[in-house]
Amino acid sequence: MSLNNFVKTIQNIMRKDAGVNGNAQRIEQMAWILFLKIYDHQEKNWEFDDDNYKSIIPEELRWRNWAIDNRDGKALTGDDLLDFVNNKLFPCLKNLELNEYSKRNEIIVKEVFEDNNNYMKDGVLLRQVVNVIDDLNLANQEYKHAFGEIYERILKDLQNARDSGEFYTPRAVTDFMAIMLEPQLTDKIADFACGTGGFLTSVLKLLDGKVISSEDRDLYKESVYGIEKKPLPYMLCVTNMLLHNIDNPNIIHGNSFTIKHVRDYTDEEKFDVVIMNPPFGGNENKSVQNNFPNDLRSAETADLFMSVIMYRLKKNGRAAVILPDGFLFNTDNIKVSIKKKLLSEFNLHTIIRLPPSVFSPYASIATNILFFENTHPTEETWFYRVDMPEGYKHFSKTKPMRLEHFNEATEWWDNKKAIEVDGFDKARKYTIQEIIENDYDLDLCGFPHKEEEILPPRELIAHYQKEKARLNVQIDETLDEIKRILDIE
C-alpha cells in the first residue's frame, strides 16, 4: 500500500465504527496504535544493542505478542480483541510503575496512554486497522524515512477537522528556519510548544547529515528538547522522535508557562537554539501570568512564549520564532515592554515577512519570522518581505509553499542589501533609534496596498475582512489590557 493511501484506508475502516466520532477521534485512535507499532520496532533495536534490555511493557502486552496476525486464525479479533484492549492493555499502560531511575523511553509509554482511550466498539474493524498498521515495513529505511508523509497527512486532516490546527507549520517554513539557524551537534535545541515535532525533525534532518562517528550519534540523540501541552500532538511527537532514532525523547507533556517563574531558570535549563511557532490567539489565566514579571504579564499566549524564549535562551544562543502581524504593529504597554526587552537585551537582526496565505487554507493570518541572538542589544534590524512566487495568487492546500520559494530570501541573507520594488520597500535596514521613534511598531517592509486599485468584489470583501481581523486584534488586545489594569477576569 502506498503511504498516500495509508491514512485514508484506516479512516475509511474507522468510519464504519459507531464508537469513533469525527476525524480528530479517528486520528487519536490511529496514533496510539501507530505508537505501539513503532515502539516495538525500536525495542528490537534496543534489544540488539543491549542483551540485558527489559521492556517496561509486560510481555503479553507487547505489540509482537498480540497485534501481529499470522493469518492462521489465532489472532485476537472481535470481542476478544476489544476485551484485551479495554480491560488489559489500556489499564496496564496507564498505570505503569515508574521510579526515579526510569528512562524517558519508559516514561513516555505511560504518558502517551494516560490521556488516551480506545474509541472503537467493533473488534473486527479494530483488527483491520491493526493489520493495516502492522503491514508498515519500518525495517526498510526508505519506507521509514517516507513515514513523514503520513505525519503530513495526519496534521492536515487535523486542520480539516478544525481541531488543534495550530500544531502544523508548513514543512517549507520549518526547514527554512532550521537552515538559517545552522544547528550544530553540540547545540541544545528547544521548541517550547513542539506540537508533533515538525521543527525538531527539520533540525534533526540537518544534524543527521553531520553525524560521522558514534560520539556524533550520541550528541544527535541528546540534541533536542520539547514541551507539548495537549495529549494528541504529544503522542505524535514522541512517536516522531522514535522514528528519527531518538531513543529517549526529551519531550515533556506539560505547560511551558507553569514550570516555574521565568526568572528562576538556571543556565543548565537554557538552550543554544530555540525554534518554534508559538500558538497565538489563546489566553492564559492570572495564576499562569504570575510566573512572569509584572511588565510582561500578558494573557496572550504568543506574548508569554516570547518571554519564555528570552529567559531560556543561553548567552550567544540564537532563535527563530514565528509571530503574527499583531505582535509587530501593536503598541499597547505589554507588547511594547516585550519588544523593549527583546531589542535592549537581544540582537533582533532580521525579520522575514511571510505572505498571508502561507498557512492557507487553514488560516489566513499574516505571520513573520523573527531571528534574534543573545549576544548584544539590537543596533539595527533588517526586514525582508517574501513575495508570492510568479504564477501564484495565493498558497493553498494543492499549491502549498515550497522550500524553493525561499531561495531569493536565502541568497539575500548572505549579502543583505536594501531592495525596492514598484516604489515599496521589499528589504530595508532600520536602526534601533528609528524603531524607537516609531513607537516600537515593527510593521515595516510589509505588503503594499494600492489604494487606487479597484478590486473585484470577492477580493474586495477578502481585503476588508483582513483589515477587520487586524482591527479586531488591536481591539481585543486593548480590551485585555484594560481588564488587566482594572483587575477584571
Description:
- The chain has helices at 3-14, 23-49, 63-66, 78-94, 104-114, 123-134, 141-145, 148-160, 171-181, 198-208, 214-221, 231-243, 286-289, 301-312, 325-329, 333-345, 407-413, 432-437, 457-486; strands at residues 189-191, 224-228, 251-253, 271-276, 313-324, 347-353, 367-373, 380-385, 419-421, 424-431.
- A hairpin with a 2-residue loop joins strand 9 and strand 10 (424-431).
- The protein contains 19 helices and ten strands.
- Helix 4 packs across helix 6 and helix 14 packs parallel to helix 16.
- Mean pLDDT is 88; it is low at 161-165 and 450-454.
- It is of the alpha/beta class and 489 residues long.
- Helices cover 45% and strands 12% of the residues.
- The protein has two domains: 3-137, Ferritin; 164-447, Vaccinia Virus protein VP39 (Rossmann fold, 3-Layer(aba) Sandwich), CATH 3.40.50.150.
- Strands 3-2-1-4-5-7-6-8-10-9 form a ten-stranded mixed β-sheet, sandwiched between helices.
- The longest helix has 30 residues, at 457-486.
Which helices and strands, and how do they pair?
Layout lengths: L2 H12 L8 H27 L13 H4 L11 H17 L9 H11 L8 H12 L6 H5 L2 H13 L10 H11 L7 E3 L6 H11 L5 H8 L2 E5 L2 H13 L7 E3 L17 E6 L9 H4 L11 H12 E12 H5 L3 H13 L1 E7 L13 E7 L6 E6 L21 H7 L5 E3 L2 E8 H6 L19 H30 L3
Parallel strand pairs: 1-2, 1-4, 2-3, 4-5, 6-8
Antiparallel strand pairs: 5-7, 6-7, 8-10, 9-10
Helix pairs in contact: 1-6, 1-8, 2-6, 2-12, 4-6, 9-10, 14-16
Q: Could you list some keywords that capture this structure?
A:
alpha/beta, Rossmann fold, Ferritin, 489 residues, 2 domains, globular, 10 strands, 19 helices
